[in-house]
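FYI - complex with adenosine-5'-triphosphate, inputs then prediction.
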Amino acid sequence: MTAVPSTDDDVLTARELYRFYRAGEEETLALRGVSLRVGRGETVAVVGPSGAGKSTLLACLAGLDEPSGGEVRVDGVRISHRPETERARLRARHVGVLLQTRNLLPHLSVRDNIRMAQHAVRGRPAMTAEALLEQVGIERRGRALPRQLSGGELARAGLAVALANSPAVLLADEPTGELDGDTEQLVLRMLRDRAADGSAVLIVTHSAEAVRIADRVVALDDGRAREKGGRETGHAFR
Ligand SMILES: Nc1ncnc2c1ncn2[C@@H]1O[C@H](COP(=O)(O)OP(=O)(O)OP(=O)(O)O)[C@@H](O)[C@H]1O
């Protein structure tokens, strides 16, 4: 993401990502050659105006969407340009995703959502569902269905699910939008803790608080990424 060459410590790398949308007559180039990397233990904030391509970028990084061109690697494994089922398998093993729309299955209790996310973990998960519930402060809500939770509880449950597989890469889309101060602080602290444990954390955000906790900030504008105060990130790998 900087002029520094990528290293073995890079857990998340994107090279020259393009994403082209066609809807009827309308064509949009949402990503125009975005390259970035996030190292082990690093937190990167991605900022930019509405329509800049932030959600598109995050979806491509998570393997939820396929870039039209370029490559994404998580934990040393290419996740882009694979069938959807393969991407889902790799995501379940290597990636935690915290989405605006929440990452919970509506018909499962919070505890079962966590257990489901732990399914892909090899061996024993680092933390039990109970321990995760406690860590995010909703230990009494494990049996509740997502629709029975308040907004703050829902955010905490989503965080527990995103962390359930101890992901090497944690991707968060506006994780603090519309949260009360306490919940915002908890979410940011846990994202930081995850990075301190060695994950690569990337946060798409408008929040000044989230930007403040980031090690680096990447500005996305009209599908192009630029390290804040730096050069266009597409040059990083040239
Ligand atoms: N499924 C789609 N089909 C067609 N165009 C799309 C699609 N998804 C996004 N776009 C377009 O791609 C561009 C980038 O959208 P994206 O949602 O990634 O921006 P964003 O930076 O996340 O915006 P916001 O901050 O408002 O959420 C926009 O011009 C948008 O209209």
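The pocket of adenosine-5'-triphosphate is lined by residues 21, 23, 28, 30, 48, 50-56 (CB under 6 Å). The domain at 39-64+86-228 is CATH 3.40.50.300 (Rossmann fold).
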